[in-house]
Amino acid sequence: MYSRPTYKEIAEVAGLTEDEVGTYFVSCLQRPDGTWLIFFGREALKGLRGKLGKLSEDLTLAIPAKHSER
Question: How far is CA 15 from the centre of its chain?
């Protein structure tokens, strides 16, 4: 089982702050291979101008799966 990434983990991978992730995060989806797709809102285009280098054109970010700490 793979656990969903936290805002802190998303922020580290995306090069954003946790607050920015909290503001623009829309949802996430886990792929069959365990990778998480993180979706950001369109408002991020304006609010995060100059900080979107690690996001795709459709404002998504892929984060490799991590095993849950159970």
Answer: 10
Tens of pLDDT, residue by residue over 3-31, are: 889 999 999 999 999 999 999 999 999 99
d(CA 35, CA 66): 8
CA atoms of 9 and 16, how far apart (whole Å):
10
Is there a domain that residue 53 lies in? Answer: yes
**69 within domain boundaries:** no
Length of the chain: 70
The model's pTM = 0.83
Q: Is the dihedral of CA 64, 17, 52, 27 positive or negative?
A: positive
* Residue 22 domain-assigned (yes or no): yes
